[in-house]
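Assemble and predict.
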Amino acid sequence: MTTFYLGERSLKRLDGVHEDLIRVVRHAIKLSSVDFSVLEGCRTVNRQQQLLEAGATTTMKSRHLTGHAVDLGAYLCGQIHWDWPLYWQIADAMKEAADKEAIAIQWGGDWKTFPDGPHFELSWQDYPP
Ligand SMILES: [Zn+2]
């Protein structure tokens, strides 16, 4: 089995993200059967406003604003792919890593309304804003 590692750009995008979430991401990349990149960590209020206006998000209370969320992208053959089955595999790795690190996370793909496959965040309960 191939072991993947986070590239420089991915590491840079983890700047300002909560250390526990970084720990889960760093652990998950070693377990994942699919390579992934960090697409986004911290987000400014301006950017969140733009995403809201574009319909790409439904909230101004995003966990990205506080460093409690990351978006991961499945990376295959030099580009990001959006097929759900790839995100099930990434979610498996993230959940297993979170379990082993004893850190509570939520996967956006488990949300009933507006499921968000690339999105992972620390639990609101254990990590209030
Ligand atoms: Zn997100």
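The first strand starts at residue 36 and ends at 40.
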